[in-house]
Specification:
By secondary structure, the chain is mostly beta strands. The chain has two domains: 140 residues, Thrombin, subunit H (Beta Barrel); 98 residues, Immunoglobulins (Immunoglobulin-like). The strands form three sheets. A six-stranded antiparallel beta barrel has the order 2-3-4-7-6-5. Strands 10, 13, 14, 15 and 16 form a five-stranded antiparallel sheet that branches. The longest helix is centred in the middle third of the chain and has 15 residues. The protein is globular. 26% of the residues are buried.
C-alpha cells in the first residue's frame, strides 16, 4: 500500500506558490500548493508544462503579513488534467539545520506542530484549524459523490454583452469569517461596496454581471483586515505592492 510506504506526514495547505527555473532566466509562475512534508510538496498550476527532474526555485506565500519561505526543488513526477498541471517536488540543497529552519517557519505561519512533520502517519490539515484531523480512508468515492462547487461559475446569456459570474470563497479560506467583501476592477476596488452572502455551508458567495471579453483583477477581504485570493482564479498577476491578485476572464 502506498500509505504505508510514506516516510513522513503530509499536510494539505492551500497556499499560493511562486516558482521558476533555477537559471533565473524565466519569469515567476504562480501555482497552488496541494500538500507538503519535510521532504517535498505537490503543486498545481495552470498552463505550465512541468518537466521531470527540472530544478525549480519556489516561494511559499503565507497570507499573514505577506510572509514567505524560499525553497529549491526537483520535479519527481508530473501529470496533466486539461489546463491543470500537477507536480511532485523534492526539496534540494538542504542540510539538517536548513531543513529544520524551513519547517520552523512553516510551522509558525500555519499552526502545524513542528514535530508533526517528522512522523510517518499521513494526516489531513488545513492552515486555519488548530488541530489535525485524520484523513478518511476512502477519499475518491466521497469526492465523486460530493464534488466541491467551483469558485467561479460563468453564465453567458445568448446574444448578451454581459457575463454573470458567481464568486465563491470556501469556508476553508474564510477561516470562521463573519464578513467578506469582494473588491476589484469591477467596483474600483471599493472594499465596502460589494458584500458577499454567507451560506449555511460556511462558504461566501456573490454574483456579479461583468462585461464580456475582459480581464478583471480582484481579491476577497475577510473581516475587513485580511486579503485572500481565489484558489481557482483564471490566473494570478503581481500587483504594485509585491503580492498577487486573482484574475477572472469573462
Amino acid at each position: 500500500m502506498l500509505e504505508s510506504k510514506r516516510k513522513f506526514k503530509r499536510f494539505d495547505l492551500p497556499l499560493i506558490v511562486k516558482f521558476r527555473l533555477t537559471n533565473g532566466k524565466t519569469q515567476y509562475s504562480l501555482g497552488l500548493l496541494k500538500n507538503i512534508s519535510c521532504e517535498g510538496l505537490s503543486l498545481e498550476a495552470r498552463d505550465f508544462n512541468f518537466i521531470k527532474h527540472e530544478n525549480l526555485e519556489l516561494e511559499l506565500k503565507f497570507p499573514q503579513g505577506n510572509a514567505s519561505v524560499s525553497l529549491l526543488g526537483d520535479v519527481m513526477w508530473k501529470k496533466e488534467d486539461g489546463r491543470i498541471n500537477y507536480a511532485g517536488i523534492k526539496f534540494l540543497g538542504q542540510d539538517e539545520s536548513s531543513k529544520h529552519e524551513m519547517i520552523e517557519k512553516i510551522s509558525y505561519h500555519t499552526n502545524i506542530p513542528i514535530e508533526g512533520f517528522f512522523n510517518n502517519k499521513d494526516i489531513y490539515h488545513r492552515s486555519n484549524e488548530k488541530k489535525t484531523l485524520s484523513r478518511p480512508a476512502i477519499q475518491k468515492d466521497n469526492v465523486s459523490k460530493n464534488p466541491q462547487p467551483p469558485s467561479l461559475i460563468k453564465q453567458y446569456p445568448e446574444g448578451g454583452a454581459k457575463c454573470s459570474v458567481t464568486f465563491r470563497l470556501p469556508k476553508e479560506a474564510a477561516r470562521d469569517a463573519q464578513n467578506v467583501t469582494i473588491a476589484g476592477d469591477f467596483n474600483n476596488w471599493d472594499i465596502y461596496k460589494t458584500q458577499m452572502i454567507k451560506l449555511n455551508s460556511g462558504d461566501f458567495t456573490v454574483t456579479l454581471d461583468l462585461n464580456c471579453k475582459r480581464e478583471y483583477k480582484f481579491k476577497y477581504l475577510i473581516d475587513g483586515k485580511r486579503w485572500e485570493n481565489d484558489w481557482y482564479a483564471d490566473k494570478y498577476v503581481l500587483n504594485p505592492f509585491g503580492a498577487e491578485d486573482s484574475v477572472v476572464i469573462t
